[in-house]
Amino acid sequence: MVLSHANSMTRDDSVASTFASRYVREQLPRYRMPDRSIPREAAYQIINDELMLDGNPRLNLASFVTTWMEPECDKLIMESINKNYVDMDEYPVTTELQNRCVNMIAHLFNAPIKEDETAIGVGTVGSSEAIMLAGLAFKRKWQNRRKEQGKPCDKPNIVTGANVQVCWEKFARYFEVELKEVKLSEGYYVMDPVKAVEMVDENTICVAAILGSTLTGEFEDVKLLNDLLTEKNKETGWDVPIHVDAASGGFIAPFLYPELEWDFRLPLVKSINVSGHKYGLVYAGVGWVIWRSKEDLPEELIFHINYLGTDQPTFTLNFSKGSSQIIAQYYQLIRLGFEGYKNIMENCKENAAILREGVTATGLFEILSKETGVPLVAFSLKDSSRFTVFDISENLRRFGWIVPAYTMPADAEHVAVLRVVIREDFSRSLSERLVNDILKILRELDARATHAVRVSSATAAQSDDGVVSKKSVLEIERDVVAHWMNAVNKKKTGPC
Q: Which residues form a coiled coil (predicted)?
């Protein structure tokens, strides 16, 4: 006997299209968890549709962060996305891959490592965490030395340029360290080593040099800083070290400028951070900090845990984190090798040169970035009386481009710039297309400015006392709109 069953399929289950279901007709709660579940297909479609309104990462020229990787690496990332990196005993191979990355990067930075030694370093979520860890190591070493000398250790400071990334300000505020900034000046947008050394005192835990300024991509003169600081240490008896923030330039300088001395070849450089997710060519979420030797990382900052199965040393600000980016970094290092990284960096440099030539050819901009440094182009308007770089930045979004406009830090705030970062996935054809779109926008902005001047001149009002006053741009626009609306309303001929 065949038993008949009532059809339990709901109306929504029978609808093939998510867009025909009730889940896209009803407003989802925004700030409270909904009472009922929804099908996975509907949840995916709703979120995917909202994300369509985000910018295109490939056209986000504001960011230094990698936006493209090879499909094979994407596959590795997805296969390891459920691994918690902190479980070192459970995932020993992942831990080994991290250690290999640390050693490869340390050798790339010319760390003085003997054949039977391993490098001292750790993978981090990004350069921000790496800088926090390096700063804590400097602070603790300085405190220990001051205590041994019987001197107060409650007023540590770091000397940097005003062009440092905000993570340095975070470190200073979070860990109670005074940040002494060398101010910038027009035409010189990096830290002046001479002024930096002048600001050093007995409470300085380190001087932070930037290899690849966020503002202009320029490399600071770490060699000169090392030489000047060495002399000051000899004169004063201090032992002030250097940290190099190579977040952007650490994966560039070794391949494009191998003769440039900025790394552990300089005796006072005790630690270096670099962002794997920038020119290390890995998606966002990985950074590295490398110390010169074991003596430069105080043992008391390292925690030893055993409740995950074995003794595990750890020095991080967080605990759990994904393994994917660590594995992706190892993939890039062995996949590309020195030759591959060099080819990519040379290509980025060439594309930056193409863009620089195109921007210069307009005759309207001054190039502020240097040819030696991070492959980016920072430029300002020679004349901002008719329109500004902020107008250009806003209009570029119409074409999909995200190009930041910003003002320089203290003592150079009057300088406003546009900056285009050249990444691996920014091809020559895209560079040429960007220049063409900038030219279109310049013509449009110039035409608007010319029209505004003409209308302003034609509608200048004369007051009762005979003084001629100019109307504001908004008033002029309202007058023009009202004039044409009146003309349309009077029009009686033609189709309705």
A: none
Could you give the CA distance from residue 62 to residue 406 in angstroms, rounded to a whole number?
11
CA angle 420, 426, 429 (to 5 degrees): 105
- Res 495: pLDDT: 38
Please report where in the chains the tokens 């998606």 appear, as a residue: 283
**Structure-token match 């060495």, residue found:** 230
Segment (H or E) for 91? none
Distance from C-alpha of 250 to C-alpha of 422, rounded to nearest angstrom:
16
Q: How many CA atoms lie within 13 A of 461 on its CB side?
A: 8
Alpha-carbon Rg for the chain in angstroms: 29
Query: Cα(64)–Cα(58) distance, rounded to whole angstroms?
Result: 11
Residue 88 token pair? 């070192």
Q: Check whether 243 has a pLDDT greater than 50.
A: yes
- The average pLDDT across 440-461 equals 75
Q: How far is CA 15 from CA 9, 23, 282, in A?
A: 10, 11, 41
Candidates 238, 298, 244, 297; CA nearest to 266 is: 244
Q: Which residue from 271, 263, 273, 256 is spatially nearest to 338, judged by alpha carbons?
A: 256
Determine the residue type at 130.
Answer: A
Give the side-chain half-sphere CA count within 13 A for 480. 14
Cβ proximity of 286 and 325 under 8 Å: yes
Helix (H) or strand (E) holding 289: strand 287-291
Distance CA 151, CA 210 (A): 30
| 359 membership: H or E segment, kind and range | helix 324-361
What does the mean pLDDT of the chain come to?
89
Q: What is the pLDDT of residue 17?
A: 85
Amino acid sitting at position 493: T
Instruction: Specify the pairing of strand 287-291 against strand 269-275.
Output: antiparallel
pLDDT at 470 over 60: no
List C-alpha distances in Å: 165 to 211, 333, 416.
12, 26, 17
Consecutive H or E run containing 278: none
